[in-house]
Amino acid sequence: MTSSASTRQPEIRKDAVFNRFVIFSPARSRRPSDFKSHSPTKSPNPNPKHLSCPFCLGREHDCAPEIFRIPRDTDDWKIRVIENLYPAVRRDLEPSSCCEGVVTGFGFHDVVIETPVHGIHLPDLSQAEVGEVVLAYKERVCQLAKNGLLEYVQVFKNYGASAGASMTHSHSQIIGLPLVPPTVSARLDSLKEVFDKSGKCGLCEASSEDILINESNYFLAIVPFAASFPFEVWIVPREHTSYFHDLNEQKAMDFGGLLKLILTKLSKQLNDPPYNFMIHSSPFHLPPSHLPFAHWFMQIVPQLNVVGGFEIGSGCYINPVFPEDAAKVLREVHCTIN
Amino acid sequence: MTSSASTRQPEIRKDAVFNRFVIFSPARSRRPSDFKSHSPTKSPNPNPKHLSCPFCLGREHDCAPEIFRIPRDTDDWKIRVIENLYPAVRRDLEPSSCCEGVVTGFGFHDVVIETPVHGIHLPDLSQAEVGEVVLAYKERVCQLAKNGLLEYVQVFKNYGASAGASMTHSHSQIIGLPLVPPTVSARLDSLKEVFDKSGKCGLCEASSEDILINESNYFLAIVPFAASFPFEVWIVPREHTSYFHDLNEQKAMDFGGLLKLILTKLSKQLNDPPYNFMIHSSPFHLPPSHLPFAHWFMQIVPQLNVVGGFEIGSGCYINPVFPEDAAKVLREVHCTIN
């Protein structure tokens, strides 16, 4: 692919979902296939059971309170959802209305321990086990949706210290907020603009052959047309759905397989980079008029370059790898998953 | 100050300039005064003249073309403004109008070499010399403003590899874009909302005793009320002005002194952290109706923590240090500057 990259000229593309411009600048790039992480995340000598880790099987008493475990009522759990011991927001505070730009830090901050075994990472789990982690997210989001005080829930995972993970034991996090973040509203406004112009949902239309990596029965994995980050991947439901937590067991298992495949490909092709993933779902109390253009998806961002002053200042990103090239590199890597 | 931090409860504050929520969460914090960088930027054995550095005096032929130097017509320059050898956007491309969300990567990407001497950093320069760097920014932005094809110019500095700097020789960058980034429009929209509600410019009103660090004749240095990042600092003109490049020589010298002071304080108090600074000016072709609420400022962000999946996903930031506490720490550190 690299001959095309070397002759490409820089382009500025509009990301119609996040409403930002991205500069694709091959002059600042090595070949996409050489764009590997210089800080691989896995320990070279993984310790199967780290004695000081409170997320390990048998160390449950060192953790903040448990919310639920899977399977229920067994010491031999596979997944635990617990409270975060150092929560960003606190469930024990009184929620308040906004006064001079301040509200109390009410909210929920939970942790999903994805495996009892230290040193096992999410894509090391079987397809069905990753599906069960997805179902644990769904179950917890459904519980939070029933709390009338919450407006938005962010499910996310930080993998690797430079992506923000403070624990190496495989886990993800869920934060429930009493407000809709303006960035989330802006995403919906952008999708509304696309819908108003074209009569179509921007995410139903987001895929093309060039940027497709893999597809499953219910999901597509693409490098978005105006990816902000090199090798950024979106996993998008084929069917137009506003809420992540509406997915059923069958779709969760299907999603788990595709997620495992993409994480395995990123790890293999990019030297086990640190990464973040985020589930972009809809705010809980979405007006029905928003349903035609609110489409949930997962964004996966490997941490391969640094966000600097230009990005912070202008909100524009510079991406040295064209999405079509990144998709080709990820499409063609050979992986068998179980 | 730390006793107050330990008893504080988390708060969610609205940043009315960048239109985002910031969660202040002391539970996730050490004491603000302990919040030092673990990756100080300066080499322990600074080399006064690095032989392979093209930004050093005498290596001008290794650089991309020069735009101007200060002083003019001398080999013994103090500041050089040059083209970026690996530009994100290219001045030699034809600008194009937006077609299917894509424009050519036309634009200008320049570098300001702040000193001829390797190993001298911006706050090591005298107050007057920092002022001259500010004047070099101004002069180059004025030149770009005359190019009818540009809409917005971002002046920024990345200090330290983890803040995005690829060269250690002290420099900053200027990118001129043929479009107004949506983030910049959103900032003006937020300030318009403040103005429409209160009849006042949000930045004229941004300061209070609690969050003030230092002031000079023409500028205030504050930790903003809803700082996204620990020890983030804004330098704000006291006088309501929309455009950075309108500042005159006297104000540039005054600004240079305050900038030097703040960078020195951050370095001293936080163990020479990597940082970014960005000048948030107005788009070139601002309608006159925007002038009452468009107020330029500089944002300085020390890189002390990691932006993770929650921030990327929700656009909300988690800041473990309350602005009042950060301002106190920075106000009280003793610095004499020349």
TrEMBL record, chains A, B:
SUPFAM superfamilies: HIT-like
Catalytic site: 171
UniProt cross-references to Pfam families, sorted A to Z: GalP_UDP_transf
UniProt binding sites for Zn(2+): 53, 56, 118, 169
GO biological process terms held by the UniProt record: galactose metabolic process
GO MF terms held by the record: UDP-glucose:hexose-1-phosphate uridylyltransferase activity; zinc ion binding
Domain Galactose-1-phosphate uridyl transferase N-terminal as annotated: residue spans: 9-181
The entry's keywords: Carbohydrate metabolism, Metal-binding, Nucleotidyltransferase, Transferase, Zinc
Cofactor binding note: Binds 1 zinc ion per subunit.
Cofactor(s) required, per the database record: Zn(2+)
Protein's name in the database: Galactose-1-phosphate uridyl transferase N-terminal domain-containing protein
Record organism: Dendrobium nobile
Lineage: Eukaryota, Viridiplantae, Streptophyta, Embryophyta, Tracheophyta
